[in-house]
Design a protein that fits this description.
The protein is α/β, with parallel strands linked by helices. The chain is built from 14 helices and eleven strands. The chain folds into two domains: 253 residues, TIM Barrel, CATH 3.20.20; 66 residues, Non-ribosomal Peptide Synthetase Peptidyl Carrier Protein, Chain A (Orthogonal Bundle), CATH 1.10.1200. Helix 4 packs parallel to helix 6, helix 11 runs antiparallel to helix 12 and helix 11 packs antiparallel against helix 14. The structure holds flavin mononucleotide.
Length: 338
């Protein structure tokens, strides 16, 4: 570990962030959260992130309330490992009754909070009235929140964007409506739906929403480093930050930011060997948990770990074709020993 004075937090912010994050009656002892990432934040990934950030809130991949309504068994993406805490199950759909039923199933799984996805930009979902399209139908969003709040006794949170496009940035009004309906925390991905994941996150909107609400507001978008987290917190006065793409192939990020907020010190970054050892662990975890399907899913993760060192591109090519743990281990062990 190395001490650093590079980023600084104002003492006012430092004092605020040293207190637990309160989501209704749930207290979280970290101001850094791991976002829901479809196809990524299964319990194997969360276990790796949690090793470095044991007190941080983690989210499942988004779960379709509609599919859940028709399924006899719960999908594996809703699985929570024993002792996983704090954890939130994220749900999406546009039907209040399905969302309420799904929320009750999520509570039975042991979730600490229910998060409602109102930010997904994917056509398949917005065309059916879910995800970010709810920004254009605030009455439906309100009805969903009301139904879910009435159905469960855990806090209900919302994750959304600043608006549909540059002509429809309605987040201040929308966020107020969510708070009025009983939402206990709002996470704001500071892009419009039209932006997708492009362009920069417009943190100034998070600052405006923070000013307009009394519930905690979590800043999301472009938190790729400790420095970015500090800058974002200073600009927005948000109650915490949520990391997303910055954790792909880098499950250390949430812990690095959390450590800085708690100690004022910068952890030394993992070496390439440590990253590749983590990749091996990720691969084994996916195999043990999902079998052959886990091996196929591991290919993208392994490629994400291989960045920024000599030979990384070649390594990515090999790893993107693996069929077994043994094959992946052989390739990674060769890279580690070289
Ligand atoms: C592969 C991928 C999957 C995602 N899945 C979800 C999801 O299931 N639920 C959700 O609310 N957001 C999802 N997001 C959005 C992220 O949580 C986050 O809001 C977005 O990436 C912005 O943060 P960033 O700029 O730090 O990546 C996903 C993003 C990516 C890249």
């Amino acid at each position: 570990m190395i001490s650093s004075l590079i980023p600084t937090l104002s003492s006012e912010l430092k004092t605020k962030l040293a207190r637990p994050l309160k989501i209704g009656r749930v207290e979280i002892h970290s101001r850094v959260l791991q976002s829901p990432l479809s196809g990524v934040t299964d319990l194997v990934f969360r276990r790796l992130v949690r090793r470095y950030a044991p007190e941080s809130m983690m989210y499942t991949e988004m779960v379709s309330a509609k599919e859940l309504h028709h399924l006899q068994e719960l999908p594996t993406i809703m699985a929570i490992a024993p002792n996983e805490d704090p954890i939130s199950i994220q749900l999406f759909d546009c039907r209040p009754d399905f969302m309420a039923q799904a929320a009750q199933k999520a509570v039975a799984q042991g979730t600490n909070t229910i998060d409602i996805n109102m930010g997904c930009p994917v056509n398949k979902i917005t065309k059916k009235g879910g995800g970010s399209s709810l920004l254009r139908q605030p009455e439906v969003a309100e009805a969903i929140v009301k139904a879910v709040v009435d159905a469960v006794d855990v806090p209900v949170t919302v994750k959304t964007r600043i608006g549909w496009d540059d002509n429809e940035i309605n987040i201040i009004d929308f966020a107020r409506r969510m708070e009025d309906r009983g939402v206990q925390m709002l996470t704001l991905h500071a892009r419009t739906r039209a932006q997708g994941y492009n362009g920069t996150a417009r943190w100034e909107w998070i600052a405006k929403v923070k000013q307009a609400l009394s519930i905690p507001v979590i800043a999301n978008g472009d938190i790729f480093s400790v420095e970015a987290a500090i800058k974002c917190l200073e600009i927005t006065n948000a109650d915490g930050v949520m990391c997303s793409r910055g954790t792909l192939g880098y499950p250390f990020l949430v812990g690095e930011i959390d450590y800085f907020l708690k100690t004022g010190e910068i952890l030394s970054p993992p070496t390439t060997v440590e990253k590749l050892q983590c990749a091996k662990e990720h691969l084994l975890g996916l195999w043990e948990y999902k079998g052959q399907r886990g091996i196929y899913q591991s290919r993208k993760h392994l490629a994400w770990y291989c960045k920024g060192f000599p030979g990384a591109a070649e390594l990515r090519d090999y790893l993107s074709q693996i069929e077994s743990v043994e094959q992946g281990y052989k390739i990674l062990d060769r890279a580690i020993s070289s």
